[in-house]
Here is the input.
Amino acid sequence: MIFLAIDWNDFLVSFGRFNIATMTLPIIVALLFRKHLNKPLYIILGYFIMTFLINILEQLFIWSSGQYYQQLKPFLDYFAITNTHFLSIFYYLKDFLLLGWFFSLVIPNAHKIIKTGSLLLAVAVSINYLFIEGYQVFGVFNPNVNILYVLILPLWYLWASQKQTLRIPLQKNPYFWIAIGLFIPNLLALFLYFTGDYIYDTNFPLYAQLVSVKNTLEIIGFLMICKGFSLSRYHRFIE
Here is the structure.
């Protein structure tokens, strides 16, 4: 009955911070193999650097709000900020612009449609963030569009890669491992997007366990992406 003794709030905070730390693994591996990186791999490296920095910014905001609340209170009250939802736009723009740019270069014959779609979605979520649902709430449109986007693009690449004639086995394709590493954790994230609020309200321990599984899948995804970067020298056999 060890689960009954766990303080799930503290556990989620600690696991979340550990998860942020593991985001550095793909960055470190990419830098170790940087002499083999091409343009798409540099873009996806930039994507992970931005992901890490935005997470650090969010943690810094949480920490500073606790340590310097009285000093920040006028600012927080003026903009009606009560949580970190106002930072979500950085996550969405990072996905639409950098992830879209990466997949527009590696999915055959899809550059124009992905590039155009990514720019339009970036504009749409920005308008929604500023003028419609606003920056003070989690919202509906932005997170749902984003999670579908980060699922569809890797799945599209995995489907397209089956039709490519490559000079190397699929398991040596760096883009394949990156797509797998992005796709797997977002499957559970999609489920949590649609059911998370209900599970949180009715069975918080179950919610915490599902989030922990998602975080574990993200770490597994980071390891797969590390493998992709370690195989970066094989990109020349794909282009």
Observations:
- The chain has one domain: 16-237.
- The chain has nine helices and no strands.
